[in-house]
Please model this.
Amino acid sequence: MWTRRQFLSRTGVAGLSIVAGTRALGKDDEDTLPDGSAAKNMITPAAQEAIDRGLAYLARVQHNDGAFGTVQYYGNVAVTSLAALAMMSGGHQPGRGAYGDNVTRALRYILDQADGGYLKSSTGTSHGPMYGHGFGTLFLAEIYGMVNTQPLRDQLRDTLKAAVKLIVDHQNVEGGWRYFPISQDADVSVTICQIMALRAARNAGFYVPKSTVDQCIRYVKNCQDRDGGFRYQMQGGMSQFARSAAGVVALYCAGVYKGPEVENGLRYLMQFKPGSTGVYRQDVQMHYFYGHYYAAQAMWTAGGHYWADWYPAIRDELLRHSDHSKQSGCWQDHRFSADYATAMACIILQIPNNYLPILQK
Model:
């Protein structure tokens, strides 16, 4: 395990000046900003134990070819990328850490799936391959500064450059993205995957046109409802938790840190603070892990009371529902695989580590 300073210096991302978490701070935020030791102390011993079990579970179920996912989701690019990001959130990187080899194997698998710049597995189910492409591109961008072996780094650079180009080239006229790499309609859920991937790539030194970002901002703002939440698409529909969390993070990733859209979005999300209804919200809320993956990032970037209130609530809810009884260490999701749910839960719980470049403050 590495300290945050050691991790940044060894991964080559310490010098990045444009990061997703960067924001202007008021005095009130400075007093409560979740950073350094104060943030790490939020990962309680019980939470760290659950994280350790979760990462061990992921290592056990990784396939020989480096992929993650089960049954119809075997080899899914998004699931594989998220599992590797969960390990990286604990400070594990290629050649370093207990799960460094697992991360490297996942990287090689994702690179092998690249068809030009398109990251799409030839096996398994994918509910819209651009989801996988977005998460895959995010993973490649996050790991870019951590790979030192030249042949692998060259392959990673070329694949990432092509993956970014595919996203940029297939933005639709509204400013968003949809399930497939065609420039037709768009939705907030796929759009957040693409703009977050582009932000990570930009952080890693890859060119992203300003016009692409500006059009994305316009699209996301046009999807916001009067209640502060976000609709799935510009026309019709209603605000819901998961898509609203995605909308706020999309604005952050596009460089919008202040303004009524952000503040109204955060206020909307606070209605869904874990534990506020006394039930495990996965039972009543679709896309539970997906929504909380983005909500936790939104609150982390917002800082202040948003993060101070949100993280302990989601931490404790996740701890109550990890699979303690079987000692498997996993989390379950009623729609997708345990690999996916466990990866998402581990990423959420490890946000205070501040190891992933996309979350750097």
Observations:
- Confidence is low (pLDDT under 50) at residues 1-37.
